[in-house]
Amino acid sequence: MDTQRRGTRAGEPGASGRPGARAVPPATVARLPGYLRALRGLTADGVVTTSSDELAGGAGVTPAQLRKDLSFLGSYGRRGVGYDVGHLSEQIAVVLGLTTQRSVVIVGIGNLGHALASYSVFAERGFAVVGLVDADPAVVGTTVAGLVVQPPDELASLVSGSDATIGIIATPASVAQDVCDALVAAGVVGILTFAPRALRVPPTVDLRAVDVASELQILAFHDRRRTGTGA
Amino acid sequence: MDTQRRGTRAGEPGASGRPGARAVPPATVARLPGYLRALRGLTADGVVTTSSDELAGGAGVTPAQLRKDLSFLGSYGRRGVGYDVGHLSEQIAVVLGLTTQRSVVIVGIGNLGHALASYSVFAERGFAVVGLVDADPAVVGTTVAGLVVQPPDELASLVSGSDATIGIIATPASVAQDVCDALVAAGVVGILTFAPRALRVPPTVDLRAVDVASELQILAFHDRRRTGTGA
DNA sequence: TAGATTGTTAATCGATTAACAATC
DNA sequence: TAGATTGTTAATCGATTAACAATC
C-alpha cells in the first residue's frame, strides 16, 4: 500500500544485527509479513517443505521476487530441495523482530478504535494491546476488549508503565497530530495512523499511515478508466 | 499497502480520457488523494492560491515530488504565481474519477465491517455505502448505519440493483477468497480487502489490500533495529 | 524590470524481472 | 548420474531527486 505506501522509512543500511548481513530493502520488508502468513498457512496444512513456486503462489508474488527477497535475509533454502517451512518461518520472524512480544496502545476508541482493540489477529501475530485512550468522558471508564478506557492525561504513564513501543491513532483527523506528538513524547518508536491527515514525526520514530478513504479513491481512478466516466 | 502497495495495478498506459495526456504512473495515483486532502484543508482555511512548497508541506511530500506528480495531469499552475486551490482540487477530482458518486458494498459486518459502514469520511469523499452483507443469521436483518444487513445470497442483486462498482471485504480470512469471487461475479470492478490473506482476482478487477497486522509487523522490524532485540 | 515559482529535463537511485550457474 | 530448485548476477524498468530554463 503500498502503501501505502506512504510512511515507510528506509532504516539505516548495514545496521542489521547479524554481521555480514546485507541491509534489507524497504520493499522487501513490506512483503515479509505476507510470506510469514503464507508459511503459517502451509504449516496448518501439514506441509513441511515448500518451493519458491508454491510459497510465492500462496503469497501472491512471483517466484523470482520471493527468492530475491529471501536472499537479503540469508541462505535458508536448499538447492534442488526447497525451504523447510518451520525453519524459514522462524528466520523471518527473527528478522521482523517478532521473537519479542510488542505492546501496543490505541488512542481513539470510536467505531474503528473499538474494532482494532477487539481484533484477534493482533494477538495471533504477536502483538498485545495493553492500553486504550479516549478524550470523550462518556467513553473513559468503559471496558472495551477487557481493558478500561483511560483519559488522555494517562497516556504517558500507560506507555511507560507497559513498555509499549507502538501507538495506533484512530482519532478524528483534527486531533491526530496532537495525539501523535503525545505518543512520541511518551516514548513509542512506531506509530500506525488511520487518521486521514499527513502527520509529522521525528526521524527516530517510524510512521505508517492507512487511509481507507484514499484506498477507495485509488480504486475509483481505475474504475473511471473502465467506465469512461470523469474525463 | 504498499497497499498495501501490494495490489496496485498499472492500468493501461495511454488509455486516459484526455487526448495527448500522458499516462499517470501508479505511484503518482496513490499520492493524489493526499494532495486532494491537503487542498481541502487549504480551502477550509480560506486559502485561494497556494505554492508547491505549501501544498507539499501539507501533504507530507517534497515540492519537487508534488510538481512532478502534477505534471502528469497537465499544467494547472502558473509560473511565478502558484496553483488555484479550487481549480486544482477540481482537476484532481476529475482525474481520480470522483465527479461521479461511487457506490460501495461491504461484506462482513463484524467489528471492522461495522466501523467501516459507519465511517463518515467515505461520504465526505464521495462514496456511498449502499449495501451490507453478512453470513451470520444473528447479524442478518439487523440495522447498521441505517442499512439492513442482507444474507450472502442477496449479494448479486444488491450489487446490480445499486450499480455498486466497489466491494469491501471485512470477513475472516478463511472465507475471503469465496467472498472475493462472489463480488467479482456480481460485477464490481474494484475490491478493497482487509482480510489477512492473498486474494486472486481477474485482471479486469482492481484489488487493494490493507492488512493492519502486517503494518504492525513492519513497524516491529524498525523497532527491533532500534532496541536491538531479535537477532 | 526583478523576483518568484512552475514545468521539464537529466541524473540518480531503488525495485523488479529474467536467466543461469551452483548445488542438493 | 539426472532432475530439480535455489541464490545470484545482469538487464530492465520505474520512481525520485535536483537543477534550471521558461514564464508569470
TrEMBL record, chains A, B:
UniProt xrefs under Gene3D superfamilies: NAD(P)-binding Rossmann-like Domain, Winged helix-like DNA-binding domain superfamily/Winged helix DNA-binding domain
GO biological process, one term: response to redox state
The entry's keywords: Cytoplasm, DNA-binding, NAD, Repressor, Transcription, Transcription regulation
Binding site for NAD(+): G108, I109, G110, N111, L112, G113
GO cellular component: cytoplasm
This protein's record includes keyword Cytoplasm: yes
Cross-referenced SUPFAM superfamilies: NAD(P)-binding Rossmann-fold domains, Winged helix' DNA-binding domain
Principal subcellular localisation of the protein: cytoplasm
Subcellular location: Cytoplasm
Keyword Cell membrane found: no
One Pfam family hit: CoA_binding
Residues covered by the CoA-binding domain: 98-198
N-terminal signal peptide: none
GO molecular function: DNA binding; DNA-binding transcription factor activity
Region listing for Disordered, in residue ranges: 1-25
DNA-binding region(s), residue ranges: 34-73
Chain's role: Modulates transcription in response to changes in cellular NADH/NAD(+) redox state.
Family: Belongs to the transcriptional regulatory Rex family.
Protein name in UniProt: Redox-sensing transcriptional repressor Rex
Gene: rex
